[in-house]
Amino acid sequence: MAIRVVVVGAGIIGGSIAWRLAQRGAEVTLVDAGAMGGEASSAGAGMLATGGEIVSPHGWRQMALESRDLYPAFVQELAGESGCGIDFRANGAVELAASEQEWAHLEERAAAQGGIGIHSHALTIQEALDLIPGLEAGSMFGARFFPGDAIVDPRDIMGALRSVCRARRVRLVEHCAVRKLRAANGTVQVYTPMGLLKADAAVLSSGAWSGAVEVSGAQGAIPTPVSFPVRGHLIAYLSTPGRLNPILRHQNTYLLQRTSGRLIAGTSEERVGFDRSLDPDIVADIHSRASRLLPELAGIAAEQSWTGFRPAVEDLEPRIGRLESTRIWLAYGHYRNGILLAPATAERISGQILSS
Ligand code: GLY
Q1: Global pTM?
Q2: What are the b/e assignments for 208-227, b being 16+ CB within 10 Å?
Q3: Which residue of 123, 156, 166, 300 could cross-link 143, Cys pair, CB 3.0 to 4.6 Å?
Q4: What is 4-85+154-226+314-355's CATH topology?
Q5: Whose CA is nearest to atom 3 of ligand 1?
Q6: In the chain, which segments carry CATH 3.50.50.60?
């Protein structure tokens, strides 16, 4: 008989895990409090940017590198199986330093990154301009190119995951908030407003909402890491397709472009709980920072601005693995890198469940 797994949370993490499990013969139910991919997964810019994100030693960096390497095959397989187009571009990233001090810091970071397989090289100002014509070179002290950085449109990924999950008979239950998971006798009971689901294993992958799901076992409550949202703002411009091929970044500002021409600029970080509202000052600040990097943006109004909730836990280290003595797996806390970490998280969690 097929193993029954309930995956709680249908973002890119839960959706990828459900797909991998279903491919390997599991009977999967995927439950979400809202719509599949309706939160951080659709809001994200879709940077697969180990060069920009792995800037200090942390526990998940090996997994991030593994996931980066898995990405081209993950996208190819997902696009092939779903028949959906996925906008994935491995054009690298140009990172700028505006002062001697920033440059020294970037060089030091790049040397450390090189030691773990994140390669980059210094660009002359002319080389940077050749890669990104119109870049504001006047205020630039130095630039480096990170060839391994890439981008993907997370909405394309979510559309494709919905399609492959459906084709593989994953039971998708949307607008159903799971309240509690109870582990007992080698099984898991999943409490939902639509009734009790019984499973041989469960995965908690509800992003910033994960910590709100009560978890218990035969001996009572089992503590799980507290989760919380870190709100980020993004804005988008309509621009000419092919205008910006690599990611362009400087400090906490980044710019990237979809194949369609849509140019996205970010970002901000705010710990304001689940407040979705747009802060006009932050939107204006991102526009101003983006315009300093690409001056042509100064004269264009953003066509859209939005916020998203990065799913964080207190030490900003994702929790990916089995909850001791239970058949419950945690897959949350991916913070700024959920899109990047999805393929490796899905491999790890589905592999552990099916071999346990
Ligand atoms: N991964 C980029 C961000 O969270 O803004």
Answers
A1: 0.97
A2: bbbbebebebeeeebebbeb
A3: 123
A4: FAD/NAD(P)-binding domain (3.50.50)
A5: 336
A6: 4-85+154-226+314-355
- Residue whose tokens read 């906490």: 252
CATH topology of domain 228-311: D-Amino Acid Oxidase; Chain A, domain 2 (3.30.9)
Find the residues whose C-beta lies inside 6 A of ligand 1: 45, 47, 232, 266-267, 310, 336
Determine which residue's CA is closest to atom 4 belonging to ligand 1.
336
What's the confidence (pLDDT) of residue 202? Answer: 98
Q: How far apart are CA 192 and CA 46, in angstroms?
A: 31
Query: In this model, does residue 281 exceed pLDDT 90?
Result: yes
Return residue ranges of the chain for CATH 3.30.9.10: 228-311
Q: How far is the CA of 334 from the centre of ligand 1 (A)?
A: 11
pLDDT at 327 over 90: yes
pLDDT digits (tens, 9 = 90+) for 15-68: 999 999 999 999 999 999 999 999 999 999 999 999 999 988 788 999 999 999
Q: How far is the CA of 141 from the centre of ligand 1 (A)?
A: 25
